[in-house]
From TrEMBL:
Biased composition (Pro residues): 112-132
UniProt entry tagged with the keyword Mitochondrion: no
SMART domains tied to this protein: HTH_XRE (SM00530)
Classification lineage: Bacteria, Bacillati, Actinomycetota, Actinomycetes, Kitasatosporales
KW Transmembrane (keyword) present: yes
Membrane spanning residue stretches: 153-175
Name of the molecule in the record: HTH cro/C1-type domain-containing protein
Keywords: Membrane, Transmembrane, Transmembrane helix
Stretches the record annotates as Disordered: 80-149
HTH cro/C1-type domain boundaries: 24-79
InterPro entries: Cro/C1-type_HTH, DUF2690, Lambda_DNA-bd_dom_sf
Length: 307
């Protein structure tokens, strides 16, 4: 068509699944209360990397999602599910029909110049009046193309708002059920038995609803919980009130001990977990605490008192 140029619509920046994942990361960052610089200081990822993850410019690695959940003190099951859906959507090849849409949906004709309607000639004084050029008085053709474009933009905006609202509702429901003691649908555990030895309780989802086998208080303000998850066939120690220089080790007879230490002040003032040890008998768990760089070592089992 002469006098008409075609302007291609820009492709969407990210899929709906990626948008849901980005929104979940933003909610976690708000709950953590940390700035981008603080996130960079407390994780292996730089400030610019976090800026790209939270603005949807770059799809984050799975470990970054786990780290943000840990800093926000939130269960990682739902954010990781959103991350996996976004990862699948990014790697999904486009369907054959998606790139072969008609020109009306892929491109919007923009008229270079709209001609003014021609004047209607006055009828001659004859028995039959001259024909009126009705076609030149019809609306310019570009309006037919412009209306669908505006409608599509409005529909897209409504869908985007609905998607963000759905993400907020789903995540709020998950956190509400976690805080109220009503367990949500539990995901499949990422390990079991010996495969859990040395693994993180959060990343493997073994720490969702474990059993507290026993609680010990070696000093005022310090609390150690021996924890066990039958679905993972593994146990670990959870520590509260730790101080710089403390070292905690969990073990079972015949197994490899697992240790967590407190190297700096960032590791204080929050819960710490040792890596897991494999066992099918929680009563065999044993935790040892060395309080301070020069402190003495005391060990505890599910039976009351130090061993």
């Amino acid at each position: 068509m002469e006098g008409v140029t075609r302007m291609s619509l820009p492709p969407p920046e990210r899929t709906a699944e990626e948008s849901a994942c980005v929104e979940a990361l933003r909610v976690l960052r708000l709950r953590s209360g940390l700035s981008l610089k603080e996130l960079a200081d407390r994780t292996p990822y730089s400030k610019s990397s976090w800026e790209r993850y939270l603005n949807g410019k770059t799809h984050p690695p799975r470990a970054a999602v786990v780290a943000l959940c840990r800093l926000a003190r939130q269960p990682p099951a739902h954010p990781l599910a959103l991350w996996e859906r976004a990862e699948t959507a990014r790697n999904r090849p486009p369907r054959g029909g998606e790139r072969k849409a008609g020109p009306a949906s892929a491109q919007v004709p923009v008229p270079a110049q709209v001609p003014a309607p021609a004047p209607v000639p006055e009828p001659a004084p004859a028995p039959v009046p001259a024909p009126v050029p009705v076609r030149e008085q019809s609306p310019p053709p570009e309006r037919r193309h412009r209306r669908p474009s505006v409608r599509h933009v409005r529909v897209g905006a409504v869908l985007a708002v609905a998607l963000l609202g759905a993400v907020w509702l789903v995540m709020a429901g998950a956190w509400r059920s976690e805080s109220s003691g009503v367990p949500a649908a539990e995901p499949e555990f990422a390990c079991h038995g010996q495969r859990c030895t040395g693994q993180d309780v959060i990343a493997t989802r073994c720490g969702m609803h474990p059993e507290t086998v026993s609680t010990h208080r070696p000093e005022p303000g310090i609390r150690i919980d021996l924890r066990y998850e039958a679905g993972c066939g593994a146990g670990w120690a959870r520590v509260w009130g730790q101080r710089v220089g403390d070292v905690f080790t969990v073990s079972v007879a015949g197994g490899e001990p697992q240790t967590v230490d407190v190297p700096d002040t960032y590791a204080t003032g929050r819960r710490l977990h040792t890596p897991m040890v494999a066992t099918d008998r929680p009563e065999t768990l044993r935790v040892c605490a060395r309080l301070g760089p020069d402190g003495h070592r005391e060990c505890y089992t599910p039976a009351p008192g130090p061993s």
